[in-house]
Design goal:
The chain contains two helices and no strands. It has a domain of 54 residues. Helix content is 71%, strand content 0%. With 85 residues, it is mainly α. The longest helix is centred in the N-terminal third of the chain and has 50 residues. The mean pLDDT is 78. This is DH200=94 genomic scaffold, scaffold_2353. It comes from Coffea canephora.
């Protein structure tokens, strides 16, 4: 009898751990969803700002944008490295 009681307690304990783990996963998923929604909103705001600029404003923005937004480095290709049509 004590073995079955012990087994029941262990299975309850295991079930409680699984529920807690699922709750933690749900919380983590909710946090990730909020972060993605925030990023999407920031992107939409940025695209609205860019679409509202004329050509001279865009040139000024590109020249003066923050360093963390300058992700791609462009290098000039020599004539030998260019693709010939």
């Amino acid at each position: 009898m004590e073995d079955s009681k012990s087994t029941m307690e262990n299975s309850k304990s295991t079930m409680e751990k699984r529920v807690l783990t699922l709750q933690e996963r749900k919380q983590q998923a909710d946090k990730e969803q909020e972060a993605v929604e925030k990023e999407v909103q920031e992107l939409l705001t940025w695209t609205d700002m860019i679409e509202g600029m004329d050509e001279s404003q865009l040139k000024t923005y590109v020249k003066n944008r923050p360093k963390h937004l300058k992700t791609a480095k462009w290098e000039k290709l020599g004539k030998s490295r260019r693709v010939q049509n």
